[in-house]
Amino acid sequence: MWMREWWVQVGLLAVPLLAAYLHIPPPQLSPALHSWKSSGKFFTYKGLRIFYQDSVGVVGSPEIVVLLHGFPTSSYDWYKIWEGLTLRFHRVIALDFLGFGFSDKPRPHHYSIFEQASIVEALLRHLGLQNRRINLLSHDYGDIVAQELLYRFKQNRSGRLTIKSLCLSNGGIFPETHRPLLLQKLLKDGGMLSPILTRLMNFFVFSRGLTPVFGPYTRPSESELWDMWAGIRNNDGNLVIDSLLQYINQRKKFRRRWVGALASVSIPIHFIYGPLDPVNPYPEFLELYRKTLPRSTVSILDDHISHYPQLEDPMGFLNAYMGFINSF
């Protein structure tokens, strides 16, 4: 009898604790993240609010660069190289994809790479830049969005961007050499478990999951991790992570379309690579990249730089990118 009462008591205690846990408010924005948000703007795509940054840099240069961020973070990933880019480009533009950062995170929603590419096109129309030649700089998930934009450019689709150059970085552009994190696999294919896992996800689980994709000497500080987590928790973004992760399946399904787009265009293409990346491991990834895209140039950063090169080695990343941009 006592045993049963013990379980009942634990159960009664657990219910309010779980309820309280599930209603933990998102963390406060740090001053740096708050100023990033307040210096940005929003535009509306099919009734959804999309956050973006648009800085006017060098006067007299016609050059425009558009930055496409990775999973599961946001446009804030570019903050360390932002100022450096404004010294070379007339316009520096970045957005938070739908479901990321400060943009809306509808649920349920069928998130897709195709929709994200259309949002980029819509942003440039909104800014009146749809007929200008664009330099794309992308990372991780953003690499795949860039591949779709490239495909549309190659097909001469209406509404497409005119792409002048493309620089990719540490993205799983080949499904066969991509090694998703355990947490990604669980959430992507969790079925009934996914909604439970996304609700139980907290800062501790997130930081333990993300830290291993950084190099040993360039790991993010606690406050940097909190900034990333705040971006995810904004608008309950943790609850859409499983939907966003369907991009891994989309990439397999559309491999021919997306890898084919990279292999068949004649614009300058570059890849900046942090070689310690566990998600796109060295040397398998690089060998396949060079074999598939012999015309592309590659910058390999220091041995200890991993999956987030623009955060881990901003100067090395910026130098590599400027070297590419000044080469054509």
From TrEMBL:
Source taxon at top rank: Eukaryota
Keywords carried by this UniProt record: Endoplasmic reticulum, Hydrolase, Membrane, Transmembrane, Transmembrane helix
GO biological process terms, semicolon-separated: acylglycerol catabolic process
Domain AB hydrolase-1 residue range list: 64-314
Primary subcellular site in the record, as a coarse category: endoplasmic reticulum
Pfam family, one: Abhydrolase_1
Molecular function GO terms recorded: monoacylglycerol lipase activity
Keyword Membrane recorded: yes
Protein topology in the membrane: Multi-pass membrane protein
Protein name: Mesoderm-specific transcript homolog protein isoform X2
